[in-house]
C-alpha cells in the first residue's frame, strides 16, 4: 500500500481572512513506517490573467496567458526530517497568512473565478523523501475574504436607482409592433450591493403592446485586463434569475430578489493591471413567433423581441 | 315407582318473593337530544345523504363538540398537537385534491418534462457543471416534442424520482438530491393538462416536503452536534432563535439558500425556497417576513393555475413556522381575487361574467382559495377576524363594516364557509347584500345563498333579523329554477320552521309544486326534495300535521327512486315511533307508502343489508297498526299486507303474531267471537307454512295452538300441535347439515310440554300420543347428549305434572276439562304415565354417560337428579338411579361444588325418613 497524504483545513467552508491563521492538519496514512527529510507547506496566491475573445484582437489572443500576479508565495517548514510510524499520523499546523513583516506586500484580493481573471489561493503540503523516493504532496484551495478591519465602516447606502424601460430607451432594433405599440416597464434596483445580501429592487409592467414572455435579471461580470497600452474588457454572464414568467398583470409590482452566487462574484476590484466589475441587466422578452426560431440565442445578444436596461452594480464586502 | 304429589299453590306461596312497586322503568332513558347538524356543503355529501339511523345520533354529537373544543383550545395545547393536526389536515387535503379532478388515462407531457420521459439517466451531470450549463439543459429540453405517457407511468416515475432523491441524499450526494428536486419542481411549470395539475402538485410537493425535511434535519444536527458527535446545544423545535444557532450551521444553511437562489426559472426557485423555508429560522429571527417576499414573487407567475397552486404551497409551508401571522395569506387571497377579476373582465363578454370555458380553470383553482381561507381563519380571534375582513376589502373599516363593493364570488364562498358563526349571524343581511352584488359567475351565486342559510342554521338563536333575512332570500329565489330553488330553500328551511313562519312555508311548498309539476325530477332535485321533506318530518312531531300541510303529499307523489324511499322510511319511522297507529286514513296512507317503499326496494336483494331497514320499518308499521274494536277490519288489513308484502319473511311472522293477538283480544272482549277467532286461527295456519325455518314455524304453531285452546277450539289446537310435531320431525331432515340451534329446540319443546298440560288427552289416539312422538323424535335424532337429556327431563316433568290430582294451570275456558278432571281417579292413566317413565329413566342415565365432557356430564347428572327427585317419591326404585347420578356427578365435579352439595341436601330432605336415611352421605 502506498502512502497517502491529505491536507485538511479547520473550516469546512475553507474561508479565511488575511489576518487570520490558516489552520488545519496534515494527515499521513502509511502502511509501513517511513522516514522523510522534512515537511513544508507552500502557500500560493495569484491573479491569473488570460486574454481570449472578448474585445481582444487576434494578435492579443495569441499571447494567451499573461504573467500571473503573485499575491502570496511562502514556504513554511512544518517539521524537520524525521520518521512516521506506520498507521495514521496527524500533524497540525497554523500559518498566519499576512506576513506582518512584509508591510507592502500585495493586496489580498478575494478569491474569484471568472472567465479571464482568476484569483486563487492554494496550500500545498510536501514531504521530502530524498532522491530515491518521489516526494509526497497534496494541494487544497482555500478561499480568502477581505479582513473585517479593511472593510468600509459605513453601511451600504440603501439607495436605489429608478429605471424605466420603454421602446425609446432601446439601443437596438426592436419589432415594429413593439416600436409602434410601445411598452413601459419601471422599477428600482440597488446598484451597490453587499456580498452577503440579495440584490433587491422591484419592477412593474405599466403597459405593453405585446404580451410578455419572461423578465430576467442577468448578473454580468466585466473583467478588464491591461495589455500593453490597451485595456481588454470582456463581459460575461454569471447568473440569470427569472422574475416573471409569462404575461404578468400590468401595474402589479414584482420583487427583484437575486442571491449572489458564491465564488463567481467578489467585491468589485479596480487594480492597476486588471479590474473586476459587475453589471445587472434587466431583460424583457416579449412573446413573438421570431423568438421560437432562435431558441438557443445567447441571452446577452440584443434581439428584436427583447428590451433591456443594463446598470452598473458595485459589489462590496461589508462587516 | 311413584310420582311425588305436589301442592302447587302452597309451593308458590312459600317460594314467591315479596314484590314492591317501582316508579321508574329500569330501562327507560332520558328523552333523546336534538341532533346537531354540521354544515357540509360539498356536493358529494348532499347526494349521499342517507337514512338517518337514530342509534348513530349520540355518536355524531360528541364528535362535533370535540372539534369545537379543539378549535378553542388549540392555542393553549402543546405545539406538537397543532403540528399533528396540521399534518393530518394536509394529508387529507392532498387526498381529496387528487380525487377531486378526474384525469384521463393519457397525459401529454410537454417539452419541459424530460425528467419524466427520459427514464433513469436524466441527471448524469457532474457536480461541477456550471450554472450556464444548467441553463442550456433546460433550453435543450424545450426543443423536444410533446410526448404522451399514461398517468400511471407519470406517477410511478415521480415515485421513482422521489426514491432516487432519497437515496442520493443518504449516499451523501446532496447536490444530486437538490438537482433532481429542482427538476421535479420544474414539472409544475407545465399546466397544459389542466386536470392533472392538482395530482402533479401533490406528487411534486411530496418530494419537496421530503427534501425540506431532510435539509432541516441536517442543519439542525449540524447546529446541535459538533463534528466529533458531541452535543453542544439543543434546539427545541418550538422556540429557538437564529441567535442560538452556531455560525457553522448558519453557513451551511445559507449555502442552501444560495444554491436554491441560483435556479434560473422563477417557479422552481419559489418552490425550492418554500421547501427549505423553515430553515430561515436558523438564519433570521423573523422568518415570517420572507413570506411576504415569496408571495409577491409569485405575482411573477402569469399562469393563473400555476400561481394559485404556488400560493397554496406557500400557505402549507408557512404553517411550519407556527406563527399566527396571516398577512401573507391575505395578500395571497387579494392577488387571487385580482386574477379572478382579470379573468372575468379581459376579452370575455361585456356582461363581466366568466365564460363557461373558464369554469374548469376556476374550479381547479378553488382548492387553493379553500385552503388559504381555512388557514387564515384557523383559530382566529374575533379582533383578528375584523382585521382580516378589512384587509380583504370586505369591510371598509372595523367601525364602518361592509363597504358594499362586490367580492369575487368563489372567494366569498370560502370566506363565508370559514367566518365564525356569530359574525355570519350578526351580519347576515349585509352578507346577503354582498352576495347579491357579487355575481361574477366564478361560483354559482345560489350556492352562496345556500351556504349562508346553512351557516345561519348552526346557531339559529343568534340570528338578529330573521324576518328580513328570510324575506330577502325568498324574494331572491323566486326567480330561480327548480334545482337552485330547492337547494337554497333547503338551507333556510330549518330557520323557517324554527321561527314558525307558516306563511313562507306555504309559499315554498306551493312554489315547489308549481315548478315541479310538469317535469321529471332530476337526481339533484330529488336529493334536495328529500332533504326538505325529511326536515319537515323531523320538525313536526305529529305525522297527521305533516300530512295536512298543503301539497306535502302531492310533492311526495312526484318523487321517485331512492329519495322517495328514504322519505317514506322517515314517514314510517315517525309513524311508528310514538305508539300505535289508530286513524284509518293514516293507516291507509301509510299502507300505500309502505307499498311504494316495497315496490321501490329491490326484491332480488332482499337479503341485502340496505333493504333490511325497509323491511323492518314496514313490519313495524304493520305491527303498530291498531284498528281498535274493528277486529274484522284489522284481520282484513293483515290479509292485505300478506298479499302486498309477501316477500318480507319477517313481516309474515308479525302477521301471525298480530292475528293471534287479534284473536286473543276478541276473546277477552267476552262477546261471542268464535267465528272470528276461527278466521284468525285459519289465517295464521295458512300463513305459517310460507315462513321458512322449521323452528320458527314450530313456535308459531304452538302460539296459535295456545290461542285456539284459549278459544275453546280443542280440535283446532290438536291439529296445530300435530303440525308443530311434524315441523319438529322434518326439521332435522331439512336443516341437517347446519348446526342445530339446540337452545331453540329445547325451549320450543319445553314450551310444547307446558302447553300439553292444558290439552285434554285424546283417548282415541292414546293419551300419551304426543309425548311418545316427542320421545321417538328424541331417539331418532343425533342431537347432542346434553340436549337429549334435557328433553327427557322435560318429558319426565310433564308426566309427573300430568299425574297430579290437581294440575297447576288450566285453560281459561270452563268447557275444556283438564286431564286431572278427565282421568280423575283413573289408575290406568297414572299407570300409563309410570310405565312410560320406566323406559325413560334408564334411557336418561345412558344418555348422560354418552356425554364426553366431564364438567358437562357432572352438571347434566345433577340436573337429571333434581328433575327426578322433584318428580318422584324417592323409594327403592328411584334411589338407585339417583345414587348413580350422584356418583357420576361426584366423579366429574369438585366435591365442594355448590350445585352438587345442594342437590345432595335436596335429595336428603326428600328421602323418606323411614327408608335408608343414611344411604346418601358425602
Commentary on this structure:
Chain B: Residues 38-49, 121-146 have a biased composition (Basic and acidic residues). The complex is a heterodimer of chains A (319) and B (922). Chain A is 5% helix and 53% strand. By secondary structure, chain A is mainly beta. Chain A folds into two domains: 4-148, Immunoglobulin-like (Sandwich); 160-316, Immunoglobulin-like. In chain A, strands 2, 5, 6, 9, 10 and 11 form a six-stranded mixed beta sheet that branches. In chain A, strands 14, 16, 17, 19, 20 and 21 form a six-stranded mixed beta sheet that branches. A four-stranded antiparallel beta sheet of chain A has the order 12-13-15-18. The mean pLDDT of chain A is 85. With 922 residues, chain B is an all-alpha fold. Helix content of chain B is 65%, strand content 1%. Chain B has 43 helices and two strands. Chain B has a two-stranded antiparallel sheet. Chain B starts with 7 loop residues before the first helix and ends in a 12-residue tail after the last helix.
For the termini of chain B, the CA-CA separation is 25 Å
Oligomer: heterodimer
Q: Roughly how many Å apart are the termini of chain A?
A: 48 Å
| CATH hierarchy class name of the largest domain in chain A | Mainly Beta
> Considering DSSP H and I runs of 4 or more, what fraction of the residues of chain A is helical?
under 10%
**Percent strand of chain B:** under 5%
Structural class of chain A: mainly beta
| Succession of helices and strands of chain A | EEEEEHEEEEEEEHEEEEEEEEHE
Summarize the amount of helix of chain B as a percent range. 55-70%
Q: Within the largest sheet of chain B, what's the order of strands?
A: 1-2
State the low-pLDDT regions of chain A, or none.
Answer: none
Subcellular location (chain A): Endosome
Keywords (chain A): Endosome
Main location (chain A): other
GO cellular component, one term (chain A): endosome
Amino acid at each position: 500500500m502506498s502512502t497517502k497524504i491529505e491536507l485538511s483545513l479547520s473550516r469546512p467552508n475553507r474561508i479565511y481572512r488575511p489576518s487570520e491563521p490558516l489552520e488545519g492538519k496534515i494527515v499521513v496514512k502509511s502502511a509501513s513506517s517511513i522516514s522523510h527529510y522534512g515537511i513544508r507547506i507552500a502557500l500560493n496566491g495569484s491573479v491569473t490573467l488570460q486574454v481570449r475573445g472578448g474585445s481582444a484582437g487576434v494578435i492579443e489572443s495569441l499571447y494567451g496567458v499573461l504573467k500571473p500576479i503573485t499575491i502570496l508565495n511562502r514556504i513554511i517548514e512544518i517539521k524537520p526530517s524525521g520518521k512516521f510510524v506506520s498507521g495514521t499520523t496527524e500533524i497540525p499546523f497554523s500559518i498566519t497568512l499576512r506576513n506582518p513583516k512584509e508591510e507592502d506586500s500585495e493586496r489580498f484580493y478575494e478569491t474569484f473565478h471568472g472567465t479571464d481573471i482568476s484569483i486563487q489561493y492554494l496550500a500545498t503540503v510536501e514531504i521530502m523523501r530524498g532522491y530515491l523516493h518521489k516526494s509526497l504532496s497534496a494541494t487544497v484551495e482555500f478561499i480568502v475574504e477581505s479582513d473585517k478591519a479593511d472593510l468600509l465602516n459605513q453601511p451600504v447606502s440603501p439607495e436605489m436607482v429608478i429605471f424605466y424601460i420603454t421602446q425609446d430607451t432601446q439601443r437596438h432594433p426592436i419589432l415594429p409592433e413593439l416600436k409602434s405599440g410601445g411598452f413601459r416597464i419601471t422599477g428600482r434596483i440597488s446598484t451597490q450591493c453587499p456580498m452577503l445580501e440579495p440584490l433587491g429592487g422591484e419592477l412593474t409592467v405599466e403597459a405593453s403592446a405585446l404580451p410578455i414572455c419572461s423578465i430576467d435579471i442577468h448578473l454580468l461580470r466585466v473583467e478588464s485586463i491591461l495589455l500593453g497600452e490597451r485595456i481588454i474588457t470582456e463581459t460575461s454572464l454569471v447568473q440569470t434569475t427569472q422574475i416573471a414568467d409569462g404575461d404578468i398583470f400590468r401595474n402589479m409590482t414584482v420583487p427583484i430578489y437575486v442571491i449572489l452566487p458564491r465564488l463567481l462574484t467578489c467585491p468589485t476590484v479596480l487594480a492597476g493591471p486588471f479590474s473586476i466589475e459587475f453589471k445587472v441587466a434587466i431583460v424583457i422578452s416579449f412573446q413573438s413567433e421570431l423568438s421560437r426560431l432562435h431558441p438557443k440565442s445567447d441571452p446577452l445578444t440584443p434581439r428584436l423581441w427583447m428590451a433591456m436596461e443594463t446598470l452598473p452594480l458595485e459589489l462590496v464586502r461589508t462587516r | 315407582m311413584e310420582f311425588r304429589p305436589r301442592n302447587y299453590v302452597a309451593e308458590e306461596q312459600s317460594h314467591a318473593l315479596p314484590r314492591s312497586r317501582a316508579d321508574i322503568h329500569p330501562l327507560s332513558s332520558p328523552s333523546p337530544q336534538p341532533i346537531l347538524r354540521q354544515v357540509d356543503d360539498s356536493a358529494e355529501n348532499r347526494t349521499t345523504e342517507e337514512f338517518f339511523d337514530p342509534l348513530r345520533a349520540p355518536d355524531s354529537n360528541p364528535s362535533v363538540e370535540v372539534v369545537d373544543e379543539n378549535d378553542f383550545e388549540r392555542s393553549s395545547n402543546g405545539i406538537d398537537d397543532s403540528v399533528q393536526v396540521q399534518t393530518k389536515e394536509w394529508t387529507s387535503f392532498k387526498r381529496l385534491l387528487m380525487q377531486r379532478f378526474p384525469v384521463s388515462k393519457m397525459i401529454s407531457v410537454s417539452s419541459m418534462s424530460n425528467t419524466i420521459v427520459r427514464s433513469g439517466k436524466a441527471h448524469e451531470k457532474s457536480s461541477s457543471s456550471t450554472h450556464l450549463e444548467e441553463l442550456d439543459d433546460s433550453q435543450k429540453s424545450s426543443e423536444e416534442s410533446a410526448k404522451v405517457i399514461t398517468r400511471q407511468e407519470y406517477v410511478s416515475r415521480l415515485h421513482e424520482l422521489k426514491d432516487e432523491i432519497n437515496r442520493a441524499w443518504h449516499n451523501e450526494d446532496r447536490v444530486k438530491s437538490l438537482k433532481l428536486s429542482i427538476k421535479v419542481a420544474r414539472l409544475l411549470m407545465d399546466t397544459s393538462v389542466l386536470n392533472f395539475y392538482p395530482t402533479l402538485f401533490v406528487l411534486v410537493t411530496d418530494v419537496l416536503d421530503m427534501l425540506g425535511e431532510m435539509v432541516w434535519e441536517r442543519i439542525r444536527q449540524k447546529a446541535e452536534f459538533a463534528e466529533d458527535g458531541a452535543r453542544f446545544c439543543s434546539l427545541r423545535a418550538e422556540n429557538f432563535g437564529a441567535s442560538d444557532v452556531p455560525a457553522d450551521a448558519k453557513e451551511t444553511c445559507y449555502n442552501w439558500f444560495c444554491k436554491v437562489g441560483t435556479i434560473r426559472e422563477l417557479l422552481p426557485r419559489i418552490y425550492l425556497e418554500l421547501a427549505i423555508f423553515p430553515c430561515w429560522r436558523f438564519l433570521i429571527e423573523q422568518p415570517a417576513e420572507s413570506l411576504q417576499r415569496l408571495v409577491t414573487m409569485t405575482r411573477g407567475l402569469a399562469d393563473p393555475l400555476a400561481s394559485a397552486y404556488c400560493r397554496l404551497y406557500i400557505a402549507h409551508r408557512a404553517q411550519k413556522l407556527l406563527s399566527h401571522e396571516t398577512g401573507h395569506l391575505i395578500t395571497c387571497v387579494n392577488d387571487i381575487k385580482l386574477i379572478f377579476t382579470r379573468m372575468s373582465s379581459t376579452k370575455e363578454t361585456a356582461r363581466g361574467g366568466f365564460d363557461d370555458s373558464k369554469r374548469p380553470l376556476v374550479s381547479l383553482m378553488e382548492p387553493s382559495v379553500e385552503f388559504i381561507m381555512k388557514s387564515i381563519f384557523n383559530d382566529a380571534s374575533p379582533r383578528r377576524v375584523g382585521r382580516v375582513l378589512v384587509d380583504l376589502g370586505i369591510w371598509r373599516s372595523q367601525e364602518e363594516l361592509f363597504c358594499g363593493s362586490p367580492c369575487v364570488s368563489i372567494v366569498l364562498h370560502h370566506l363565508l364557509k370559514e367566518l365564525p358563526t356569530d359574525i355570519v349571524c350578526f351580519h347576515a343581511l349585509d352578507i346577503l347584500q354582498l352576495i347579491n352584488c357579487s355575481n361574477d359567475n366564478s361560483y354559482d351565486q345560489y350556492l352562496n345563498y345556500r351556504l349562508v342559510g346553512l351557516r345561519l342554521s348552526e346557531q339559529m338563536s343568534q340570528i338578529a333579523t330573521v324576518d328580513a333575512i328570510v324575506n330577502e332570500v325568498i324574494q331572491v329565489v323566486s326567480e330561480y329554477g327548480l334545482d337552485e330553488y330547492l337547494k337554497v330553500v333547503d338551507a333556510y328551511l330549518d330557520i323557517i320552521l324554527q321561527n314558525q313562519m307558516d306563511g313562507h312555508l306555504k309559499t315554498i311548498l306551493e312554489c315547489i309544486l308549481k315548478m315541479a309539476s310538469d317535469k321529471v325530477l332530476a337526481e339533484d332535485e330529488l336529493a334536495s326534495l328529500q332533504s326538505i321533506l325529511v326536515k319537515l318530518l323531523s320538525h313536526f312531531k305529529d305525522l297527521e300535521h305533516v300530512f295536512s300541510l298543503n301539497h306535502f303529499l302531492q310533492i311526495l307523489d312526484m318523487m321517485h327512486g331512492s329519495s322517495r324511499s328514504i322519505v317514506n322510511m322517515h314517514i314510517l319511522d315517525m309513524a311508528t315511533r310514538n305508539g300505535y297507529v289508530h286513524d284509518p286514513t293514516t293507516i291507509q296512507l301509510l299502507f300505500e307508502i309502505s307499498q311504494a317503499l316495497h315496490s321501490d326496494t329491490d326484491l332480488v336483494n332482499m337479503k341485502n343489508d340496505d333493504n333490511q331497514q325497509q323491511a323492518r320499518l314496514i313490519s313495524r308499521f304493520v305491527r303498530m297498526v291498531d284498528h281498535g274494536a274493528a277486529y274484522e277490519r284489522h284481520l282484513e288489513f293483515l290479509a292485505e299486507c300478506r298479499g302486498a308484502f309477501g316477500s318480507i319473511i319477517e313481516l309474515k311472522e308479525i302477521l301471525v303474531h298480530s292475528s293471534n293477538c287479534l284473536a286473543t283480544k276478541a276473546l277477552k272482549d267476552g262477546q261471542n267471537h268464535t267465528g272470528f277467532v276461527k278466521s284468525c286461527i285459519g289465517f295464521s295456519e295458512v300463513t305459517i307454512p310460507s315462513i321458512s325455518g322449521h323452528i320458527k314455524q314450530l313456535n308459531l304453531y304452538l302460539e296459535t295452538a295456545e290461542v285456539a285452546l284459549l278459544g275453546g277450539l280443542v280440535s283446532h289446537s290438536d291439529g296445530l300441535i300435530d303440525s308443530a310435531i311434524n315441523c319438529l320431525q322434518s326439521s332435522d331432515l331439512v336443516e341437517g347439515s347446519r348446526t342445530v340451534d339446540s337452545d331453540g329446540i329445547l325451549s320450543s319443546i319445553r314450551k310444547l310440554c307446558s302447553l300439553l298440560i292444558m290439552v285434554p288427552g285424546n283417548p282415541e289416539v292414546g293419551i300419551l300420543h304426543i309425548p311418545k312422538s316427542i320421545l321417538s323424535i328424541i331417539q331418532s335424532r343425533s342431537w347432542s347428549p346434553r340436549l337429549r337429556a334435557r328433553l327427557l327431563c322435560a318429558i319426565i316433568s310433564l308426566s309427573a305434572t300430568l299425574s297430579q290430582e290437581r294440575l297447576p294451570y288450566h285453560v281459561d275456558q270452563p268447557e275444556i276439562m283438564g286431564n286431572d278432571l278427565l282421568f280423575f281417579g283413573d289408575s290406568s292413566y297414572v299407570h300409563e304415565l309410570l310405565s312410560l317413565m320406566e323406559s325413560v329413566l334408564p334411557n336418561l342415565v345412558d344418555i348422560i354417560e354418552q356425554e364426553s365432557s366431564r364438567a358437562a356430564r357432572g352438571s347434566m347428572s345433577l340436573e337429571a337428579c333434581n328433575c327426578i327427585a322433584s318428580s318422584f317419591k324417592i323409594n327403592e326404585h328411584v334411589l338407585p338411579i339417583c345414587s348413580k347420578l350422584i356418583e357420576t356427578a361426584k366423579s366429574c365435579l369438585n366435591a365442594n361444588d355448590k350445585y352438587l352439595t345442594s342437590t345432595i341436601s335436596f335429595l336428603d330432605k326428600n328421602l323418606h325418613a323411614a327408608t335408608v336415611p343414611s344411604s346418601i352421605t358425602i
